[in-house]
Amino acid sequence: MDFPQGTAEPSFDVIIAGCGPTGAMLAAELRLHGVRVLVLEKETEPASYVRIVGLHVRSLELMAMRGLLDRLLEHGRRRPAGGFFAAINKPPPEGLDSAHAFLLGIPQPVVVRVLEEHAIALGAQVRRGGALAGFEQDDEGVTIELADGERLRSRYLVGCDGSRSTVRKLLGVGFPGEPSRNETLMGELEVGVPPEEIAARVSEVRETDQRFMLGPAGVGVYRVVVPVAGVSQDRADPSLEDFRQQLRAIAGTDFGVHSPRWLSRFGDATRLAERYRVGRVLLAGDAAHIHPPTGGQGLNLGVQDAFNLGWKLAAQIRGWAPETLLDTYQAERHPVAEDVLDSTRAQMELLSTEPGPRAVRRLLTELMDFDEVNRYLIEKITAIDIRYDFGEGPDLLGRRLRDIDLNQGHLYGLLHSGRGLLLDRIEHLTVGGWSDRVDYLADPAAVLDVPCLLLRPDGHVAWIGNNQQDLNHHLTHWFGNPTQ
Residue ranges of the FAD-binding domain (predicted)? Predict the structure, then answer.
């Protein structure tokens, strides 16, 4: 694809390919810092099917930090924060370290709509029917060509365009891992047999196959999840007859399924991009990592990518980013994705119907009766266990801070602007020349076991201490040079 020579002034600071949860979240985070953003979505209309997803604890915290949680709670159902790991039915551990210790079951289109509306309200532009076909980057920016031949200019490009990411492929970034070996059919359909008959048969099948599910998804509608051996060649959406045949093969009956709301299939491919950034082009969400949906971590992982990247990319564009700040996006998020991929690999093994994995599953089920084991696994899946490597220091350093009580209300209510925050319990410190990037709050009564701490815009603790000189060093490390 031939691109014109020259470096025309960019019309946008960032162009985002893909307006799913990751792309919409990233657009909103960038707009909090005045970055000019265009989101390109190749689909002309939002998805017609309503897939229910689960927002885990850490994602709920992120939404609370930006004032979005109440809007999402209106459309979802709270469920206990337990029983996620390989669908092993255990209660949630007591006293999870969060003010939002539950799972929110919510239609994915609602999540996308809320995040997109939030981004647009902040000033982001969203263009539907705009499919990216090619790009070329230089020292000043990225020239992007759309499928209709239109060319756009931006300082940065971020691929949030899913597992078959055009951006990743054109960028030439490797996507190593394991291809799909098996598939799962998923859909929402009406059924033709009584509920008690369904419940009895489902209970019997799940004694040996935990991947099978058939449960209520609304009035007269059931969500059906049924495993398939092998992988289809055309990867097209399954038909109603495909569901009937596979239900008969797995459960001995097709339950009289009819009138589907939506039907889809997904594989168990597990892949991780070798790099999250090449020059002025970055990857986030499913464009950077894919894995089976066991444990419900995919959407959450992508939204958390966007939350980590947004303020860093904005800092780069606004001109105050320390030299290595943007590099910390891959340094922090790539290991997190590696851990999620390993977790889903383990869970898929535990869902196998083979005798060996079933024996391991029975053993792990017993071990999860120990609170430490159950807590460890739930904190891993809900992402509240993440600790970025910020060097030596107290255990809280590098971790996210829960929504603690303050004299001024709740902590997360003070983070809606996407700025850093110095929480000063000794009332002797100052943010000085960083006040255009970092807020200051003196609160001796804050419920903390440390004297003072510095929060990044993503809610992770960047510094703990009581010395102004040491604080200034860390302010410079994360927020650049002070304004004179």
Answer: 12-343
